[in-house]
Amino acid sequence: MRDMERCERHKRYKLIALSIPLLAMLAVLGGCGADEAEEPAQSAVQPVTLEYWTPFSGGDNIFMTELVEQFNSEHKDIRIDQINSRLDDYYSRLRTAILSGNAPDLAIIHATNLPQFVQNGYIEPLDGLAADTGLDWGQFNTKIAESTVYGGAHYAVPLDTHTLVLYYNKQYLREAGLLDAGDKPLIGKGEQGFTAFLQQLKAAVPPGVAPLALPSTRIDSVWLWWSLYNQMQGGGVFYNPEGTQAVFNNKSSLQSLEFVNSLYQQELIPPDINDAFKLFYDGEAATLITGVWGTGAFEKDEKLELGVVPVPVIYDHPAVWGDSHTLAIPAKSEMSAEKRSAAMVFARWAVEHGVMWAEAGHVPSSMKVVESDAYSALKFRSDYANTANYVAYWPRNVKQWSINEEIIRQFEKMIYREQSPEQALQRAVDSINLQLKK
């Protein structure tokens, strides 16, 4: 009996001995579970958010929006908030925002406008940031990269160059016998050759169809004049060496302007065109001279049998008006290093993904992108990509944007036969020289 009692006690002690560690383990596990339940879940890392201003209107804004959305989807630590505005008042708003301390973190600035932003200290030099984020300045087309350099420092990251090109409706040119075997326009040499080309078109197209579409107002005729003036040996001079006086009222400038004016006066460019872009899109023009930004929109029209080539060389060598969209960081003393770095990450990514931007029609700034298979696969772009090598930028002057407005005013009066080309040049120069003295 006693042996049985000892056996039962032994079993109970053994059970207790086994239970104590098990209970302790459960207590520990239970304690961990309780602690985890009490701890709040870790919040997701908040991305660095950048306010990004752009001045795009029409078709190219769609492509920039897509580019931004793609970047945001690939970068959870950075978010770009794009704010797009009309170009008409974009730069006045940007200057006001910078001066009032409400500048965006990143902004598009045309190369033509960089002088005033650099000289006034409105934007930051970028070489240090570029080195930190691995942006290689050597990847850029030399001519495009030079448009962002002031005093040996880079002040903006170039995205592209956008030049004038000649769009043409293959159907009209074919019917006029003006297409070669490769579906390229048959245009003779010099002023006479281009004039004869348009005259032959005029004789062949249906009534109401413009041989060449160009607006009677705004800057398009100025762009064409600047292109042709720069094609001349020794041409393209705008200011004296000191930059204190406009001097483009000269023989070469006058010859190129008289040629542009002759196209209007012979009605090879019909009078009173307001929207030349729409005219060509709707099939009411055989050719159109405007910027490469039209390519992305025109190729979507299935009814339009589109062709694109560089602006013809009328004089001595290739040259064409152009500008560049660049990415700049407005001067903001309170902007964090984290934001500056994020802005450069976006700039580098945008350049490296230039094929997306090229879909709008622009020529990418990166030579690697232009030479890529992806870019070559885009229709039409390779036909004019080489214009980046002979783009004629406006001269560097802090007032160039407003100075061009005066040229526009005088050219419009010429187109409407209120003055001669010689008077237009002289009056533009006189007015600009008064501005330069202020």
The gist of it:
The protein is an alpha/beta fold. It has helices spanning 2-38, 59-74, 87-99, 114-119, 127-133, 142-146, 170-175, 190-204, 220-230, 251-265, 276-281, 295-298, 337-352, 354-358, 367-370, 373-376, 381-384, 400-415, 421-437; strands spanning 48-54, 78-84, 106-110, 149-150, 153-154, 157-158, 160-169, 210-213, 285-291, 306-310, 320-323, 325-328, 363-364, 391-392.
Give the arrangement of secondary structure elements.
Elements: H1 2-38, E1 48-54, H2 59-74, E2 78-84, H3 87-99, E3 106-110, H4 114-119, H5 127-133, H6 142-146, E4 149-150, E5 153-154, E6 157-158, E7 160-169, H7 170-175, H8 190-204, E8 210-213, H9 220-230, H10 251-265, H11 276-281, E9 285-291, H12 295-298, E10 306-310, E11 320-323, E12 325-328, H13 337-352, H14 354-358, E13 363-364, H15 367-370, H16 373-376, H17 381-384, E14 391-392, H18 400-415, H19 421-437
Parallel strand pairs: 1-2, 1-3, 8-9, 11-14
Antiparallel strand pairs: 3-12, 4-5, 6-12, 7-9, 7-10, 7-11, 7-13
Helix pairs in contact: 5-13, 9-10, 18-19
Shape field? globular
Number of strands: 14
Q: pLDDT below 50 for ≥5 consecutive residues: which ranges? A: 1-42
Estimate the strand proportion.
Answer: 5-15%
Distance between the termini: 124 Å
> Helix/strand-derived class?
alpha/beta
Total of DSSP H or I helical runs spanning 4+ residues: 19
